[in-house]
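Example record

Each entry pairs one chain with its bound ligand, fe (ii) ion.
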Amino acid sequence: MERIELTDEMISVLRERVRDYLKPKRYLHTLAVEEEAARLGGMFLPERVNALRAAALLHDITKRDDLEKQLQYCSEFGIIYDVSEKSSPKLFHAKTAAALARRDFAEFVDDEIVSGIRWHTTGRAEMTTFESIVYLADYIEKTRTFPDCVELRRYFWDGVASPGVDLAEHLKKTMVKSFDLTIGNLIEENSPIDRDTVAARNRFILELREDVN
Ligand SMILES: [Fe+2]
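Structure tokens for the complex follow.
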């Protein structure tokens, strides 16, 4: 896979450029995701820390756009969507942000960065470590106060601090827990559960059982 090298200067430029795409509160969240992704990157993918920063900075660039605009992006970028997704418009922004990042920020992204953006909301089967970090950073960044976020943040960092921890395994367990929390909420709200989320959870559970790999 072709990988882009991002300097600290490029990250600073990107950090300013994405500001135009985000409401002020979302921008603060985005900066917190960047910081969290860099911290997790330092533990799991040290050579990709700036790429993780870029994915974090770009992950929500279409979040403020309404359903009409999301559908417009879909036709513009040839994004295929399921009719059921129209009832969960939140799910559009990951797909549309990935496409918009390629168009408006081409000099800052490679395939890995774009896929980190693409899968940051639902997850997917066989998530890469890169995708998992962007997803998890979004969930547990320090400004999140939603009880599930607080719980997952504590679970992850307590596990990291526990003696003899296998970090790769703990990351997978944290991902499973995140999906359990998300799916639990969706059930409570009587909302549909995205198939990619189910596939992501299934895959991590099998990996933890070592039925695969
Ligand atoms: Fe986010």
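The chain has ten helices and no strands.
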